[in-house]
């Protein structure tokens, strides 16, 4: 039986500091008691004991019976608090879902792709900030089709020293769809990035989030691949932590021997475009190409045969 009290509150400890994007609150489906959420205040912040020091995200006049309302916050904090000011109040909700990004998670600004896609289980769902443990019900996970060596890749856009990777496995069913997955980190796109050095192998794990130490491995790409035939790779969330970006600059001088007329500016631009494309295929995209000096056209002279000497054709 619910009891009335002064300033009742409900607090969710996220255990880490998050950039909270939005909070979804589901009211109870009971016409006699749904008003118990009326006047509630939603707060986000890092103050555990003094909840009133946390920032207000939204003030809730009411939520209809059995309805879910979503409130955009965009605030940083470890705690999400829902409270009702006043005496002789009762706070009652059915569900409170928090969607956000873990502070320091490099994956949140990356881009993703995978070897194939099952239904609407797109690659980007593995970095959407929703750990989506109940994959089928929430639809917050990525998944490939059953295939040989399925893989998923995250492009961090820059090179980082990766200290750890946190992988969340689904727990509604099919937990074995992550068994044997290899975490690989590096800068090469050879074999879609799956030939980069290996950080860890994920064993048979239940649903939940698990952290794998990578010891500062350097790389722009984070891959997960399951070797084998008729395998499915399902990921509910991948979080990457490390330092960087690692800034490196190298100058490479090359001498080209070409049958084309390199004194022609248009031809020189075509050559540079082809060279840039070849480098991009190997994972080198942040490259500046230019001519150090204008090439000189050299025409090889062929001496005419002397009188009486045979001509070779």
């Amino acid at each position: 039986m619910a009891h009335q009290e002064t300033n009742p509150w409900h607090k969710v400890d996220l255990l880490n500091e998050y950039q909270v994007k939005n909070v979804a609150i589901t009211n109870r489906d009971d016409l006699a008691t749904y008003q118990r959420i009326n006047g509630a205040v939603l707060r986000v912040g890092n103050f555990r004991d003094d909840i009133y020091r946390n920032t207000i995200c939204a003030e809730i006049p009411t939520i209809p019976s059995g309805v879910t309302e979503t409130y955009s916050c965009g605030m940083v904090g470890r705690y999400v608090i829902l409270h009702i000011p006043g005496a002789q109040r009762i706070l009652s909700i059915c569900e409170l879902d928090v969607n956000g990004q873990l502070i320091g998670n490099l994956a949140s600004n990356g881009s993703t792709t995978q070897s194939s896609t099952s239904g609407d289980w797109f690659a980007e769902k593995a970095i959407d900030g929703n750990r989506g443990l109940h994959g089928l019900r929430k639809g917050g996970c990525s998944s490939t089709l059953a295939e040989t060596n399925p893989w998923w890749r995250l492009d961090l856009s820059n090179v980082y020293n990766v200290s750890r990777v946190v992988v969340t496995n689904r727990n509604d069913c099919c937990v074995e769809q992550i068994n044997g997955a290899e975490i690989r980190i590096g800068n090469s796109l050879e074999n879609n990035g799956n030939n980069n050095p290996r950080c860890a192998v994920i064993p048979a794990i239940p649903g939940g989030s698990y952290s794998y130490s990578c010891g500062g491995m350097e790389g722009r790409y984070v891959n997960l691949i399951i070797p084998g035939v008729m395998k499915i790779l399902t990921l509910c969330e991948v979080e990457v932590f490390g330092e960087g970006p690692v800034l490196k600059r190298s100058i490479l001088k090359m001498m080209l021997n070409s049958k084309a007329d390199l004194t022609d500016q248009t031809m020189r631009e075509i050559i540079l475009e082809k060279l840039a494309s070849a480098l991009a295929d190997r994972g080198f995209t942040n490259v500046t190409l230019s001519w150090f000096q204008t090439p000189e056209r050299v025409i090889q002279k062929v001496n005419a045969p002397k009188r009486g000497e045979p001509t070779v054709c």
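The first helix runs from residue 135 to 138. Residues 185 and 222 are 5 Å apart (CA to CA).
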